[in-house]
Specification:
Elements lengths: L2 E7 L20 H6 L7 H6 L7 H4 L11 E5 L8 H8 L17 H11 L3 E6 L2 H15 L2 E5 L4 E7 L5 H14 L8 E8 L5 E2 L4 E4 L7 H7 L3 E5 L2 H4 L7 E3 L4 H12 L5 E7 L1 H7 L4 H20 L5 E6 L18 E6 L8 E5 L4 H9 L13 H4 L2
Parallel strand pairs: 1-11, 1-12, 2-14, 3-4, 5-6, 9-10, 9-11
Antiparallel strand pairs: 2-13, 4-5, 6-7, 6-8, 12-13
Length: 391
C-alpha cells in the first residue's frame, strides 16, 4: 500500500535565492532567524538532515550529522513568485511563468466599484496592511458603518475582514465569492481571503478564515494521481489553494497542531495515494508578524509531532518535508521572502544520507511522487530523482 505524506512547512525558507534582491529580499534567511533562538529545539529535523542541506551546512557546520537519516536537497523556485499559491502549484508540478498581480497602492476603481455595487457595501482601507493592524485601525469604523475592510499585502491577495457580529461568516464568504468573480483576467489575484474577527477592541481574528484561490490552469500532481485511481487527501489549506481541483478529500484545520493531529489520524487509516499537508501557522502567526521566538517555538512543536509520525510509518510510506517560500521574521518586511526551501525525504523505500544537491525547481517533488506511483508526468514540470534515492 503505497502512500506519500507531503508536509509543507508554510514559509520555512533556508536562505535567499540569487534573484532575491529583485524581490526586495536580499540576505533573507528564515531558518537563520529562528534556529539560534532559545525556543528552537528540533532534534528530529536535525537527525533527518536539515543542517546537511546545501547552504545550510556551510552556515551551521557544527549542527550537521555525519550521516543523516533522510535524503535531502535545497530547492529553488522556478516560478516568478514568492507566494503560497505559486509555491504549492510548483510543488505539484505547475510552474507559474507570469507572477500573480499585486497592488502596492491598493485596488483600482475598476475592481472596487463593481465589488461595492455587487456586495451592496462600501469599502474601508483598500491598501497594503498587516492583518492584525488593519482590524485595530479600521475595526471601530467597520462596526459603526458595516462597511467591509478590504486590504492586500505584498502577496497577490484580496482580503476582506469583518466582525462576525456585523457580518456573519457565511455572508463574508459570499462577499469573497463576489470578489473572486470580479478578480479575473489581468486582476486574477492568487487568493481572495475571508478574515473574520470577533470580540471587543482590540479584536481577535478567528480560525474561520477561508481562501478562495484561482483554479490551476493545468492539471497538477493531484489531478494525475486522482485520474490514476489514487486518493489525494488535502489537509489544511490544500483544498483552498488548488480550488478543490484534483482533491478527493479535504480536511481544513485550525492550527499547526490540528494539522499534525489530522495527519497522524490519517496515517492510521488504510488508503493508497497522497496526503498533502499545509501547516500555515509558521507563516500567518509568526513570519508575517516578525515573531522569531514564536516561529522557533512552532518549529519545536512540529518536531515533537514529527517524532511520533516517524515512529508510525508503514513499510511503503514515504514522508517528504518541504516549504513553499520564505517569510523571514528578522527583517523589517512582514511579507514573504524569495528563498530556497528545504526538502527531506524518508521512509523504508528511501535511502538514507543521499545529498540531492540544489534542485532547479520545486516541481522535482511532483515528478518523483508520480514516478513512485508509476504515473506518467503528462506535461507537468520537474525531473524525478527516484532512481537516486530508491533503496
Amino acid at each position: 500500500m503505497k502512500r506519500v505524506f507531503l508536509i509543507v512547512l508554510d514559509s520555512f525558507g533556508i536562505g535567499a535565492m540569487p534573484d532575491a534582491a529583485a524581490f526586495g529580499d536580499e540576505n533573507s534567511n528564515t531558518l537563520a532567524a529562528i534556529c539560534n533562538q532559545a525556543e528552537f529545539d528540533c532534534p528530529n529535523l536535525r537527525k533527518l538532515g536539515l543542517f546537511a542541506i546545501d547552504g545550510v551546512r556551510e552556515l551551521f557546520p557544527y549542527t550537521t550529522l555525519a550521516f543523516p537519516l533522510a535524503s535531502y536537497a535545497r530547492l529553488a523556485e522556478a516560478s516568478a513568485a514568492k507566494d503560497t499559491t505559486a509555491g504549492h502549484w510548483e510543488i505539484a508540478g505547475l510552474v507559474s511563468d507570469t507572477p500573480f498581480p499585486t497592488y502596492p497602492n491598493g485596488f483600482p476603481a475598476e475592481v472596487i466599484a463593481p465589488f461595492e455595487a455587487q456586495a451592496g457595501k462600501k469599502v474601508l482601507c483598500n491598501k497594503p496592511y498587516s492583518g492584525t493592524d488593519v482590524i485595530r485601525d479600521y475595526g471601530k469604523e467597520h462596526l459603526k458603518t458595516g462597511n467591509l475592510i478590504v486590504y492586500t499585502s505584498g502577496d497577490s491577495v484580496f482580503q476582506i475582514a469583518a466582525h462576525e457580529d456585523v457580518v456573519p461568516v457565511e455572508e463574508l464568504y459570499r462577499y469573497c465569492e463576489i470578489a473572486r468573480g470580479i478578480l479575473t483576467g489581468k486582476h486574477a489575484v492568487g487568493r481572495v481571503i475571508a478574515r473574520p474577527f470577533t470580540g471587543d477592541y482590540p479584536y481577535t481574528r478567528t480560525p474561520r478564515r477561508h481562501d478562495f484561490s484561482v483554479s490551476p490552469p493545468k492539471d497538477t500532481l493531484l489531478d494525475l494521481l486522482k485520474t490514476a485511481g489514487y486518493q489525494t487527501i488535502g489537509v489544511g489549506k490544500i483544498g483552498d489553494i488548488f480550488a478543490g481541483k484534483g482533491v478527493t478529500e479535504s480536511h481544513p484545520t485550525k492550527s499547526n497542531a490540528d494539522g499534525m493531529q489530522t495527519a497522524l489520524a490519517l496515517q492510521k487509516r488504510e488508503f493508497e495515494g497522497l496526503c498533502f499537508i499545509n501547516l500555515v501557522d509558521f507563516d500567518s502567526q509568526y513570519g508575517h508578524r516578525n515573531d522569531a521566538k514564536g516561529y522557533a517555538r512552532a518549529m519545536t512543536e512540529f518536531d515533537g509531532y514529527l517524532g511520533e509520525f516517524l515512529s508510525n510509518m508503514q513499510e511503503e510510506d514515504v514522508l517528504i518535508i518541504t516549504a513553499d517560500h520564505g517569510c523571514d521574521p528578522a527583517t523589517p518586511s512582514t511579507d514573504h521572502s524569495r528563498e530556497y526551501v528545504p526538502m527531506l525525504l524518508t521512509g523504508a523505500p528511501v535511502a538514507a544520507g543521499v545529498n540531492l544537491g540544489t534542485r532547479s525547481t520545486f516541481a522535482d517533488i511532483s515528478a518523483t511522487v508520480l514516478d513512485y506511483f508509476d504515473v506518467a508526468k503528462n506535461g507537468t514540470a520537474g525531473q524525478s530523482f527516484l532512481s537516486q534515492i530508491k533503496r
